[in-house]
Known about the structure:
Blueprint: H1 20-24, H2 31-45, H3 49-62, H4 66-78, H5 82-99, H6 102-115, E1 121-125, E2 136-139, E3 142-143, E4 152-154, E5 158-165, E6 172-178, E7 183-186, H7 201-237, H8 250-285, E8 300-304, E9 307-311
Helix pairs in contact: 2-3, 3-4, 4-5, 5-6, 7-8
Amino acid sequence: MSPLRHGAVACLVAVALLAPNAALAEDVANPRAQALFDKALEAARKGDLVAACPLFKASQDVEPRSGTLLNLATCYEKTWRTASAWATYRQAESSARREGRPQLEEEGRKKAELLEPRLVRLTVTVEAAQRVPGLVITVDGAKRPEIEWGLPIPIDPGEHTVTAEAPQRAAWSQTVTLTSDSRALTVPTLAPEKPVSWWTTGRKVGVGVAGAGAATAVVGLVVGAMASSKYSSGEELCPPNQTTGCRVGAKDRSDSAYGLATTSTVLVVAGAAVAAAGGVVVLVAGPPRAHGAAPKKVLALSAAPSWVGLSGQFD
Length: 315
């Protein structure tokens, strides 16, 4: 017969914590919670505690019960997660008290008391001089509130990373491995961040594009001056409004002047557009992005004699 989830308060090696008649008084379990709990017991009896613990936790999340908490705490203890086990035994004690189950309450209390001397604790100290504005301390990514700074907080044995961050300060982190001994860490003074260069990738590209556009426009002006010179020399060979008696080469010079003038117009317009696009890239690129921030989307340039296009992304 499948064990009732609410009454199953056996330890993970199937040693009963309560007499069988305690199980008979339980209410019918939530079907999802019961299925998860049964699966957890099955995994535990096979010795697969890595699979059993999250199944007990999932069952508890669906329908909280003190009996499930005791099994979850025992699972944590047998996988050397002593701090998690101790905290869960305490939760089971409180839960059983609310449920009016004195036997389970006593079991949770006794288990927690027996485990407490074996707890490993991590103390993170921040001296007054190191408490810069906006300082945030995290342990394995979870924020440690300021009220806990300097307190020995129980933690599961294993590798843990302590990080300190503050605005306009270089982040600090240290990884420690805890086994059977507690450990204390002191957060050092966070150094000011190094000044970041104005020359971001986007701004460099933007200035380069603007410079190329300006150079193109200058070439266009030079070609325009050549066109004007050609036209003037053509007028010497054939004054305006004169249709006959023009000297040899006048028409060739005139045609050349018109060609150069057209080229000059294209170069000046295109150069001005490219230079303007480069200026836009510089403005949109903005300041250097903070460490860990997402890349900033800006514009890159594509150009041809008859069109100019902007696209792309820069950090």
